[in-house]
Amino acid sequence: MPSLETALPLMLLWAVIGYGLGSVPFGMVLARFMGLGNLREIGSGNIGATNVLRTGSKKAAFLTLVFDGGKGAVAVLLARALAGEDAAQIAGFAAFVGHCFPVWLGFKGGKGVATFLGIWLALAWPVGVACCLTWLVTAVLSRISSLSALMAAGASTIWAVFLGHGNTLFLGIALTLLVFWRHSANITRLRAGTEPRIGQK
């Protein structure tokens, strides 16, 4: 955990800014803008890139991935530049919470995988790259997005310690627990062998 140097009111401000950035539902915005329909009525009903891919538009899915990852990264980088490392971690966590529980959608958001990866890439890029590679290898081998996300999240704190970023450990544990919580239904389907594969409608 980084040393706490930012004043509490500023920390709260960065939490609000992070939440606001994270709560923008880019998947839904892009799906509507590109005429792909209402994501709530497609596939799993999720607002993330995996469900956007079920519309058949790889372009929309890619843009959703980039923007959802980007909002987490922007929250971290802005807070780090204007406040400090403690504010960066708070803003990153708040951005993740904003994506998962956006006020604009009745606190029913996405599962946060892209935002999770974006946060790590901005916070500690070696850890972020390791998490992305963990996701990619698992996805190639299993073709299951949720399993890839769980593997990447589960490995994130191990990578953080191994790569010398122990000051992110508490944040990493909190993010990992939230990822697993948001994937509870997926975990049930994985155990039952009924979890859909990447690209499956």
Structural summary, described in words:
The chain has helices at 8-22, 26-33, 49-53, 58-82, 85-100, 113-123, 125-142, 145-162, 169-182, 184-192. With 201 residues, the chain is mainly α. It has one domain (8-192). α5 packs parallel to α9 (169-182), α6 runs antiparallel to α7 (125-142) and α7 (125-142) runs antiparallel to α8.
Topology summary:
Layout (H helix, E strand, L loop, with lengths): L7 H15 L3 H8 L15 H5 L4 H25 L2 H16 L12 H11 L1 H18 L2 H18 L6 H14 L1 H9 L9
Helix pairs in contact: 1-4, 1-5, 2-4, 4-5, 4-6, 5-6, 5-9, 6-7, 7-8, 8-9
Mean pLDDT: 92
Shape, principal axes of CA atoms: globular
N-to-C span:
42 Å
* Secondary-structure element series: HHHHHHHHHH
Helix content: 55-70%
Class derived from helix and strand content:
mainly alpha
As for the number of domains, it is 1
Number of strands: 0
Number of helices: 10
Low-confidence runs (pLDDT<50, min 5 residues)? none
Into which percentage range does the β-strand content fall?
under 5%
Oligomer status: single chain
State the main characteristics.
mainly alpha
